[in-house]
């Protein structure tokens, strides 16, 4: 089993819709959690950190459930510019592990 | 403020050759991590350097080695190249401690093609 697993993609979503990504991690000792975004043929960039209490940044909401070892990302009112691959990331003992990523296509 | 810079951006090698990739971290960062990203996959952790020592290592063979210099820059070396080593190699830097620790800033990558 992979240490970080994400929803298979791609997700094809009309502009303005809400989309949710899920991620599970296998090691309960994992300490911190992030979502990164990667545009086609570009490097990954931090989208947001994920905190136990849940956190929001504009249209983006991230949640963490340590008991279920589950992380989520919700994008509301999706824009064409949200089209990208979203990477779930887990930090365990300073080893930062990426999921395979979920590709999102926002359709006009 | 320069971000993470990597060189070369593209290179082509043949099987059995050796390659060295270079990385300069973002100003103020002291930790460098290297990742391999194959097409359609997420970045795979190779290793991390801090204080000129390899601190963590992923599931990569000894053909992959690295180095960190006193100015925090780093090199990734791959010996005896295989076709399967063709990938985008990403360098990421971060702070070791404090606010923002373990938040990675990536370079644009070095795309290696092995023929």
Helix content of chain A: under 10%
Determine the N-to-C terminus distance of chain B. 37 Å
- Biggest contact: A-B, 21 and 21 residues
Mean residue pLDDT of chain A: 94
For the terminal residues of chain A, how far apart are their CA atoms? 37 Å
Q: Tell me, rounded to a whole number, the average pLDDT of chain B.
A: 94
Percent of residues in β-strands of chain B: over 45%
Helix content of chain B: under 10%
**So how many helices of chain A?**
0
Element pattern of chain B in H and E:
EEEEEEEEEEE
Which stretches of chain A of 5+ consecutive residues score pLDDT under 50?
none
Assembly classification: heterodimer
C-alpha-based Rg of chain A, rounded: 13 Å
Secondary structure category of chain A: mainly beta
* Low-pLDDT residue spans of chain B: none
The portion of residues forming beta strands of chain A comes to over 45%
Shape of chain B: globular
Topology:
The complex is a heterodimer of chains A (108) and B (115).
Chain A: E1 4-6, E2 11-14, E3 19-25, E4 32-38, E5 45-50, E6 55-57, E7 60-65, E8 70-75, E9 84-92, E10 95-98, E11 102-107
Parallel strand pairs in A: 2-11
Antiparallel strand pairs in A: 1-3, 3-8, 4-5, 4-9, 6-7, 7-8, 9-10, 9-11
Chain B: E1 5-7, E2 10-13, E3 19-24, E4 31-37, E5 44-50, E6 53-57, E7 64-68, E8 74-78, E9 87-94, E10 105-106, E11 110-114
Parallel strand pairs in B: 2-11
Antiparallel strand pairs in B: 1-3, 3-8, 4-5, 4-9, 5-6, 7-8, 9-10, 9-11
């Amino acid at each position: 089993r992979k240490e970080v697993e994400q929803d298979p993609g791609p997700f094809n979503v009309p502009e303005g819709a809400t989309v949710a990504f899920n991620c599970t991690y296998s090691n309960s000792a994992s300490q911190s959690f992030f979502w990164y975004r990667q545009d086609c043929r570009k490097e990954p960039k931090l989208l947001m950190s994920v905190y136990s209490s849940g956190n929001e940044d504009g249209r983006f909401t991230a949640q963490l459930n340590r008991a279920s070892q589950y992380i989520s990302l919700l994008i509301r009112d999706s824009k064409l510019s949200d089209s990208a691959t979203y990477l779930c990331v887990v930090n365990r003992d300073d080893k930062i592990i990426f999921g395979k990523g979920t590709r999102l296509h926002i359709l006009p | 403020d320069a971000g993470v810079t990597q060189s070369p951006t593209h290179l082509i090698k043949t099987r059995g050759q050796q390659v060295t990739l270079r990385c300069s971290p973002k100003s103020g960062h002291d930790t460098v991590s290297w990742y391999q990203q194959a097409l359609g996959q997420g970045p795979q952790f190779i290793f991390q350097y801090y204080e000129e020592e390899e601190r963590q290592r992923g599931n990569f063979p000894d053909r992959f080695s690295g180095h960190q210099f006193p100015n925090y820059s780093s090199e990734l070396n791959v010996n005896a190249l295989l076709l399967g080593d063709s990938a985008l190699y990403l360098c990421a830097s971060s702070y070791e401690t404090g606010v923002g620790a373990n938040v990675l800033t990536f370079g644009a990558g070095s795309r290696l093609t092995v023929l």
